[in-house]
């Protein structure tokens, strides 16, 4: 796994960070970027996240060994159609937060057998744009890889090697498993953060401290991007939200003086479960 | 406001931090601590959070100019009964997270006219114990002050001066207003963080990244402490939780392909509201 040309299609926070990491860790390697806004491409060039910029995906992937789709998932179909005639054996992956629809799209549009493998690097932040890109954004974070029965085994191990070079840990999951588990751990929390912010009155928000700010930090994400994600994964979201309503109802039933001991146990169980996944208080205990 | 003896009743994270801050900012001043565990008192002495330690509240407040109740709210009644005969004109305040019941208790137990004023320093963390105490824990954080019609005006300005010396901003609220607004901004988020942790399956938790960890950080708090808070403020909690259920139902109704634009608007409104209270991504933008 020693690519000489890597194409980043979509140079936002994550695409730009991947570009910076590739340039730092793979030498020699040229990074070619595609974006639909000239200003973004200029900024990516200026920051050194890419070496070359194009306004058409088809031109940005010419001669590429690795192609990474980093635009919002909603743009994938059109981009796949544009690159399909020109990718010629390149390893193709993406960074989309949902995988069933993306993998299905790639298998339908790219000429088979394609060297496509779906990826989901669990790195990023609610900050937007290439100006926040960092070479170490992916360091030590987890990258979920979602092969199917159609996936070429060499492409699979190549894509794992690629993310590992950038400092990530990898884990294989089926696209369906991915979407179900990520709904609980990422998509549901995003929706709840937005709901908590919306449920709070303006006069209460004046009192907001670190606890509230941490809890709702991810509600600051891009509405369009998250709309696509939540809509795409809406079957799993409905299951998760129904589960939360059940837990809420159980919780309300514990707010009775005679239920004090049960309420304490509920809170202690949650604290113990939380403690097992990361040291409380250390906001940076893992990459996002 | 130049106290020479400050009594800290309960030397945990917050009590210990107040002790360290008093010793750093008020000189000369002696800090006397009460705790029911000898090991905790020894650690507080060793860390320099207190100068003198007692196992009985009545002894710890003798000669004090300022007394700060820092134990869990559930212990306040017993402590107030023990110090009532010996406080002799000291300024008395507390750090409890609920205020209606605390203020009522103090007015019922302390001999009137008492120099008691309820306080709620919005500082702390889900970490527990004096070993995490820091002199700057309260720096720049907000301290809510909850006077009533019975409150002595000199005591009120003295207690505000005390917290300001420790680096806090202060805001006056009625006890009822306090409990209602803090329910939305602190108690509800705590309950929801616990609920989100409980709603996630173990195999999904393996994938948890920074977003999930931030969102659920406060779920790591002490179950007993939070049980007391949530139970004490259960009328407001029920109102908040009902509001969240309404928002959840609205959110679920937006997860339909034809509602994409409305879903995006919901998410954008939440992001804009969140942005107004703190820069997204900066977990330390304010004290807790």
CATH superfamily of the largest domain in chain A: NAD(P)-binding Rossmann-like Domain
Estimated structural class of chain A: alpha/beta
Helix percent of chain A reads 40-55%
Main beta-sheet annotation of chain A: 5 strands, parallel
**What gyration radius of chain A follows from the Cα positions, in whole Å?**
21 Å
Element order of chain A: H for helix, E for strand? EHEHEHEHEHEEHEHHHHHH
Tell me what the structure shows.
The structure is a homodimer of 288-residue chains. With 288 residues, chain A is of the alpha/beta class. Chain A has two domains: 5-173, Rossmann fold (3-Layer(aba) Sandwich), CATH 3.40.50.720; 178-253, 6-phosphogluconate dehydrogenase C-terminal fold. The first copy, chain A, is built from twelve helices and eight strands. The first copy, chain A, has helices at residues 13-25, 38-46, 57-60, 76-83, 100-109, 153-165, 175-199, 202-205, 210-216, 223-232, 234-253, 260-277; strands spanning 5-9, 30-34, 52-54, 66-69, 91-94, 118-121, 142-146, 169-172. In chain A, strands 3-2-1-4-5 form a five-stranded parallel beta sheet. In chain A, β2, α2 (38-46) and β3 form a beta-alpha-beta unit. Chain A starts with a strand and ends in an 11-residue tail after the last helix. At the A-B interface, α7, α8, α9, α10 and α11 of A face α7, α8, α9, α10 and α11 of B.
